[in-house]
Design goal:
Elements: E1 6-7, H1 15-21, E2 26-35, H2 37-43, E3 48-58, E4 61-69, H3 72-77, H4 79-86, H5 106-114, H6 120-124, H7 138-184, H8 200-211, H9 221-232
Antiparallel strand pairs: 1-4, 2-3, 3-4
Helix pairs in contact: 8-9
């Protein structure tokens, strides 16, 4: 039979308080060796079995703990944390670690970690009911965290807009370049305009653009027309 959730007896709480506090809780999974009494008696020695447990911690309250044997319901509640733990990965912190936030000193970060506050985001979300646990200046510190997160969100949006503007500028520049090349390119022969109607310069430009090889400087018009005709007909070798 799965043991029920139990609270740390040092700090009893009513059910309403528990519901409030656990809304932002995070788990610590671990393995505990449990002695199997019946098997130990039959074997004449201590027989233990490793079982999975979870300690559910509440940011801002180091005294309130819930310990529970891992059940399908627990796994469903914390699927990602459980999967990382099962893969022997350390529990990752989602958010900005307090050590990387300038308003708090290293010592202050350790103090906050002692009451299960690991990130700026967790600090910003501390409810009024546990603000006193932060000590003097706790309310102001939470306000700073909230303001910092709001400013960071605004900066992220501004950065995204700047990136979009830069991408748009690049697309416009590429379009302008393509238009410029189209304008500079000599007109290709069409049914309305025959090769022999092109000027010598247009013939030279057409040969250069289509074949990648410039016509000889002393090439006569007849040669230019013949070479352009070969290119237009899909021939690649010069006459």
């Amino acid at each position: 039979m799965v043991p029920p959730l139990f609270l740390d007896p040092r700090k009893p709480r009513d059910m309403a308080s528990n519901a409030r506090d656990f809304s932002k809780s995070w788990p610590q999974f671990y393995v505990e060796a449990i002695e199997l009494k019946a098997e130990s008696e039959r074997a004449g020695r201590a027989i233990f079995e490793d079982r999975e447990f979870v300690r559910i911690l509440v940011p801002g309250d180091r005294l309130l703990n819930v310990v529970h044997q891992v059940t399908p319901e627990i796994i469903d509640r914390f699927p990602e944390a459980y999967a990382r733990w099962k893969a022997n990965q350390s529990e990752s912190v989602i958010g900005t670690p307090l050590e990387q936030w300038p308003p708090v000193t290293k010592a202050r970060a350790y103090e906050l970690k002692a009451i299960n506050i690991r990130t700026v985001e967790e600090l910003a979300g501390i409810p009024d009911g546990v603000l006193a646990n932060l000590g003097m200046g706790g309310r102001e510190l939470r306000a700073k965290a909230q303001a910092w997160i709001a400013a960071a969100s605004g900066n992220a949006q501004a950065g995204a807009m700047a990136a979009e503007n830069e991408a748009l500028k690049q697309r416009l520049a590429a379009l302008e370049d393509a238009i410029a090349r189209m304008v500079a390119a000599p007109p290709a022969p069409t049914e309305e305009r025959n090769i022999d109607e092109l000027s010598d310069k247009e013939l030279r430009d057409y040969i250069k653009q289509q074949s990648g090889v410039s016509a000889p400087p002393n090439a006569k018009r007849d040669w230019l027309i013949e070479r352009a005709t070969q290119i237009a007909n899909g021939m690649t070798e010069a006459a």
